[in-house]
Design a protein that fits this description.
The protein is mostly helical. The protein has one domain: Four Helix Bundle (Hemerythrin (Met), subunit A), CATH 1.20.120.520. Helices cover 86% and strands 0% of the residues. The longest helix has 30 residues. It is globular and about 50 Å long. Bound molecules: fe (ii) ion (2 copies).
Length: 146
């Protein structure tokens, strides 16, 4: 069965591809694809993954840093939502978002996941994956029906 790391890593790869696409095409529609992936991803991590990690003394600092990085990305996404792709700052905002998210992904995969793997059992990592998948399913359903 998939662990939470497998699922998050697969989504990171999808977002990275979209970020590359956005820096090539500069389209707002590509930005919206990023937002559609990143919003529930961050929400799901904050709901089911980070709280478990925060219980581990050793991980507390890394998790609080991860929250800060999420907030940085959320602020950028919010700003960009209200911007026109013809705005002279648009391209710079895309690079900023790309850098910000890529840095965060690197830290999650390189530090947070590594440390979590050492403390969480395989079973726990699969359990969190199930919760995360359920949450995403209902989130996506909600989006489709509104
Ligand atoms: Fe992530
Ligand atoms: Fe994250």
């Amino acid at each position: 069965m998939d662990t939470i790391y497998d699922i998050l890593k697969a989504e990171h790869d999808q977002v990275s591809d979209l970020l590359h696409q956005a820096s090539r095409d500069g389209l707002k529609v590509t930005f919206f694809k990023i937002k559609l992936k990143a919003d529930p991803h961050m929400m799901g991590e904050e709901k089911f993954f980070y709280p478990v990690l925060e219980e581990i003394e050793d991980l507390r600092e890394l998790v609080s840093h991860a929250y800060e990085e999420h907030n940085e990305a959320k602020t950028l996404i919010f700003e960009m939502e209200g911007m026109d792709e013809r705005n002279e700052n648009w391209t710079a905002k895309i690079s900023e978002l790309k850098q910000s998210i890529e840095r965060h992904i690197e830290e999650e995969e390189g530090k947070l996941f590594e440390k979590a793997r050492n403390v969480l059992s395989q079973e726990r990592a699969e359990e969190i994956a199930q919760q995360y998948i359920e949450f995403k399913r209902s989130y996506m359903n909600r989006i489709e029906t509104t």
